[in-house]
Amino acid sequence: MHPFDIRKPDDAIRPALQQKIDNLTKPKGALGRLEELALQAGLVQQTLSPSLSHPHNLIFAADHGITAEGVSFSPREVTWQQCIHFATSTGGGVNYLCRQHGFTLRIIDVGVDYDFPPELPIIPRKVGRGTRNFLHEPAMTTDELDACIAHGAEAVRTVHEAGCNVVSLGEMGIGNTSASSIWMACLADIPRSAAWVPDRGYRTRACAASSVSSAALWTITPAIGRIHGASCAILGATRWWPPSGPSYKQPNWVCSSLSTDSSSPTACWPPVRSAQT
């Protein structure tokens, strides 16, 4: 397991930041959400003049063993096909959004059941050829979990060393919503049958989750991270933060966007400084 030293940014600068934002030549609060983000960026960077540089969108890709239960309308092969599309095309949704907002797109293979040609711009960090079927057995071993977290941390460390200080995160993997449904059933007490789609004649999201007994959920919960390889890499990415020091320029925030077709972050928070893995 990789230890992380997670702390909150010093809040002492908040009043000065808020005062600067309120005294700009505009009606107070006129910029809405942008003012909240400006305050957040200033808090994380600990400066009255925060800046964003070299933004990156990192997509972690992996397959899911639960697809054997027919939980997705799309076949497993779509995972690697989409990865190639993201890496070589300009027409994907994520490609458009990255181009529109000036993000550099990076695809990291942490467990796709496919051998990508080495000439493709896909970063090889394969921990396995997809997870196992969590309906019948642990999807990942503890060692595989640790490896995925380490790869996520490495990916953020690498782009930061290249001058990036704002990151959005995504994942690609057919069957990903079923894996995510198990997370939410265990951690947020969301009903396992919540994603039944009767008008389509098949169950996406929580199909297999609905088949898992309550006893099995209690067994899964202590090792919840072992369900979703790409999410474990994202976990590592959000938890790595470079140490402070004379030559250290602190990034501003890590943003999590769990949709592979969006480089615009759906949830942002000031990630606190944490030790390297």
Quick structural overview:
With 277 residues, the chain is α/β, with parallel strands linked by helices. It has helices at residues 14-22, 33-45, 78-88, 93-101, 142-161, 176-187, 207-211, 214-220, 229-239, and strands at residues 56-62, 104-111, 122-124, 166-172, 196-197, 202-203, 253-256, 267-269.
Shape: globular
Computed CA radius of gyration, to the nearest angstrom: 20 Å
User: What profile does the largest beta sheet have?
Assistant: 6 strands, mixed
The average pLDDT is: 74
Number of distinct beta strands: 8
Distance between the amino and carboxyl termini: 9 Å
Based on helices, strands and strand pairing, what is the structural class?
A: alpha/beta
> What string gives the helices and strands in order?
HHEHHEEHEHEEHHHEE
Low-confidence stretches: 195-227, 241-277
How many H/I helices?
A: 9
Percent of residues in β-strands: 5-15%
Side-by-side strand order of the widest sheet = 3-2-1-4-7-8
Helix content bin:
25-40%
Notes on the protein architecture:
The chain has helices at residues 14-22, 33-45, 78-88, 93-101, 142-161, 176-187, 207-211, 214-220, 229-239; strands spanning 56-62, 104-111, 122-124, 166-172, 196-197, 202-203, 253-256, 267-269. The protein has 277 residues and is α/β, with parallel strands linked by helices. The strands form 2 sheets. It has a 6-stranded mixed beta sheet with strand order 3-2-1-4-7-8, sandwiched between helices. Strands 5-6 form a two-stranded antiparallel sheet. A hairpin with a 4-residue loop joins strand 5 (196-197) and strand 6. The longest helix is centred in the middle third of the chain and has 20 residues, at 142-161.
